[in-house]
Amino acid sequence: MSEKTQRDELAVFGGPPAFGEGDALHVGRPNIGDRARFLERVSGIFDRRRLTNDGPLVRELERRLADALDVPHCVAVASGTVGLQVAARALGLEGEVIMPSLTFVATAHALEWLGIRPVFGDVDAATLTLDPARAADLVTPRTRALLGVHLWGRSCAVEALERLAVDRGLRLVFDAAHAFGCTHAGRGIARFGDVSVFSFHATKVVNSFEGGALATRDAELAARARLVRNFGFAGYDEVVCLGTNGKMSEVSAAMALTSLESLDQFLAANRRNYGAYREALATVPGVSVLGPDPEDGWNHHYVVLMVDRDRACLGRDELLDVLWAEGIFARRYFYPGCHRMEPYDSRDPAAGRRLPVTERVLAALLLLPTGSAVGPAEVRTVTSTIRTAVNHGRAVREELARRRVSPRPPAPSLRRP
User: Is 70 left (phi over 0), alpha (psi -120 to 50) or beta?
Assistant: First the structure.
């Protein structure tokens, strides 16, 4: 790998790609903790022959998560998506739930799967999270809850959403899939609303291969969630409610516990990469790196670039083509928006007109590779490629137009971004 400082060094102009197939950079490449400690835990699982069904590692993980999140109750589940479904069922939600479209589609699907209709509200231009004023305009007699998303770990307007929920008699759920290790105004991010749902998918700062957890201060809600995640069983052969198989396995809990033990190391790598990206791109016209609210504590797990086509003389998608040609698989999160995906697009094809900020953001944002698999040399290569592409923006646009074919290879298989 090397820095790209001249136009003809860029792969779109015939230069060698910065990264080959074996060492390509991906957004969301998993953090791996202490392998020996993980394998030790797995050996214990085999010795006990307890592979799932609320085993000792799952119970230990729930205690550790509750401590880390500063809440009394955590319920481990099979995925963040299942966690949202369990939370909705435990809260007795039906009808409509107001949420942003600027999120991973699983947030909407989790509701739709239960027969609950997502209603998309626009985001605030500064926070890029659900705008409380726009949400208030969407409340109807059918509305049962608000669902805010702590996007890339940047917290929602939690106080305003809490006031709106209280004023309108609504439940308040937070999708905190990106927000483990984050705080708002000095408080743990899970200490707001009725319940927060975290993801421990392989791409997250703490991962359990696949997994998630509900965090709440409400003991009754936690108890209902435990019933729902285990088919509604209240005893050995007593089913008291409609439930599902939402349990986390012991091997997933082993990975999550191992990740937790390396969390400080992961966060240090994130902070280092974020600082390097922000410094290196500070003087590149039309390109800006999103930062956290000064009142928030942030896990720095996502490096989010906003591209101003007019100032950069290069659009977001054109910059993406440049990076993919180099083996740098940046991502357009969460393009094209939930409202333009099915089944929501067919049901309300005009939704985009009511979401002007969401539409503008979706056309401009780009996520860059980071995490413990990315070091200073990789960041220098990525940032020098961006700088050189922008410095020669018009030539890049002309070359891409001449080819009329995007150099992007098939998208890598990644689930929850």
Answer: left
> pLDDT tens-digit profile of 47-62?
999 999 999 999 999 9
CA distance 377 to 380: 5
HSE-CB of 230 using CA atoms within 13 angstroms: 22
* Alpha-carbon gap, residue 107 to 413, rounded angstroms: 19
Q: Max CA-CA distance within the chain?
A: 70
CA-to-CA dists, residue 222 to 77, 146, 147, 196, 271, angstroms: 12, 19, 18, 11, 33
Per-residue tokens: 186: 């000095």
Q: Is the dihedral of CA 172, 365, 281, 407 positive or negative?
A: positive
For the chain, which domains are there? 7-31+263-330+369-403 (3.90.1150.10), 35-261 (3.40.640.10)
Distance CA 161, CA 95 (A): 19
Give residue 38's Cα distance to chain centre: 25
Contact 380, 3 (CB under 8 A): yes
Residue 173 tokens read as: 């759920």
Each residue's pLDDT tens digit, 258-295: 999 999 999 999 999 999 999 999 999 999 999 988 88
Amino acid at 6: Q
Non-local (6+) Cβ contacts of 268 within 8 A are none
Kindly tell me if the per-residue pLDDT of 84 is higher than 70.
yes
Residue tagged 């481990």 (tokens): 76
Write out the two tokens for 4.
Answer: 């790209």
Is the CB of residue 11 less than 8 Å from the CB of residue 407? yes
